[in-house]
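Section handout 9: paired folding examples.
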Amino acid sequence: MKMDISIIIPTYKRHAVLERTLKSIEHCLPQSSEVIIVDQSRESKEKSSYFCRQYPFVKYLSFPYPSLPKARNKGIVTSKGNIILFIDDDMTVHPDCFAEHIFMHSQENANIIAGRIKQMNGASWADSPKVASINNDTAETTGNFDLDYEGDVLYATGGHVSIKREVFRNCGLFNPYFTGNALYEDVEFSLRTRKKGYIIRYDRKAIVYHHQIDRGGCHDSVQSQYLIERLHNQTLFYLLHIKPIPAKSFIMYLKNLTEYISRTKHKSHSILKILLCVMSFFKAYIDASISFLIIPRLRQ
């Protein structure tokens, strides 16, 4: 039977948090739906039997290493739903959330719905009048996905978004050259769909709650490693969607970021970390060139 909606939850090294998410959704699943977990941790196979036994509605997939875009892509190609909904593993879901997504997709020209995310545990969004914005000088993104706003937005966050399957057929999957569990793969995908003429709508009534924690997920690596991956992803996004040759403002931004990443507690700079930042920049150049070639092939 064709599923109306497939709910995909990528996870990495935080199974207790994932279980809280599953408990929040088990009593509000639409009748024609499926839930797919894509576990990127080494313990995925041994955890699979437990989660499938405790939550019979779950399909549990293993992925051998942490890569958020590749985990999402595996979930997409395995799923059956006409609507594919992504939520992060540290979310709990409002009882009406899934029904709201299905309703929004029944409206004319509704293909991508960016949902609302309420921050918990003292976390907060940026103080921004816009749901989503991008600084074209630095490629920095600013989001406030908890505004009382209804309408079109520049991009959706992968932590809570629903997408019709036809969008993946026409625009390709998430770009696998965005590394690790860092950022920008969702923003890049959003802008790619907009170039194809799709509209991204923000829905303030489709609500999840983000319970931010300090361990697991993106926080599992040391800060410098995470920032180096972010530098790569930010540069890759810039080259793909802002300018193929970086402007002076972006070069200066990367210089300042490299100095921050390489600074030691003795107020000097680590030569190794400087070299890693430079290598990350040039790797982004190579990955951008490859992306132009492979993205058209990444059809669902």
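Moving on to protein 2 of 2.
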Amino acid sequence: MRIAIPIATAVVVGLVVAGSWVRSSEAQAPPAGNVVALTGARVIDGTGAAPIDRATIVISGGRIQAVGATVAVPAGATRIDMTGKTILPSFINAHGHLTADTSDRSSRDKLINQLRIYADYGVTTVQVLGLPLDSVADAVTLREEQAHGSIDRARVYLAAQSIRDLKTTAEARAKVTDYADRKVDIVKMHIVGNANDMTPEVYGAIIDEAHRRGLRAAAHLYYLRDAKGLLDKGIDVIAHSIRDQPVDAATIAAIKARNVGYIPTLTRDLAQFVYESTPPYFTDPFFLRHVDAYRKEMTLLSDPAHQEKMRTDPAAQAIKKALDQGSRNLKTLADAGVTIALGTDTGTNEGQWQGYFEHLEIEMMVKAGLSPMQALVAATSGAARVANVGQQLGSIAPGKQADLLVLNADPLANIRNTRQIHSVWIGGQRLAGTY
């Protein structure tokens, strides 16, 4: 068990070809075990530090050995010229899901398929905050496999099915015990602000038992009052924006005192109303890379009757106001020094697209007032910290896994340049694909 460190669709047929995707089951050269030197690139290391120009990154055994402007290339190393490129840590989704694939494939194959889609977009680690029990064992196996040798899919860490509506502390502790015995990485709960919610005593027992088993606890929430109660009981991760009212000074202080991670999931709210018409990204080749996986949902979401239903749905329309408030709270919390993590809630519900929405989420963070650098930190070291994998991932530094995103343009100049992908690397191996 990983020991936790608490932290406090019209379908555009003509573009189908542009959206086709070919992936080998093997990573591209260089072979595993070779020393590789990526030279001449601009490096954004994921910590918020100033970029390093004309830098060299030396990789050996899947890990970064050295990085800097004056690093010498070791004798015999495979040298790869990255002049004109920008290299940053590949992205980490601190709140994803793996239930989007509803095909007849086996559970394992469905999980792998979705993790490959994430990786193709440069999202090479996913913390799954809620997975059906019948998929947990397969996900745990995939997690264990990623510790040995190269992989061609995103790394996965997981919570089992979100806990909700329990009535007693005994039930709460028994549920956490069951999940811990299944070797999950984190426990997730739902607090939605209705009469069926667990009482503070019950969700406090979930948090306490999780900590006793060396696990962190994350909460789905909406309301400020629920955030306050969960913080009082020791929650580690706030898995969605606070969206009903502005965050106050006491809440900010409580978040910072426990070093609680905050995941805004702005695109989750966007998906609740954006399909009242056909969104412009339905004709974006970057989105359509995985049109084969998206087509069924795109057809549904492009249907005029479905769009009219969304336009007249009071709940869908109300979420627009909630998104505005969540965006303002994100800016307030980021300015206060709270740890912000990229998270999207993708891989569940209609129209929440794995891989693509992570890039859109980063752009929405910048629209909310974060600088491009702040948004990139949230997508790298911030998300690594919130997913409890910061010792291995999230920044470009000696000893870290060489999980890298190489771009053809600088995202600090324009955050949409995260879409200008040259290559994706996991454990020092370049993923095969069409970039």
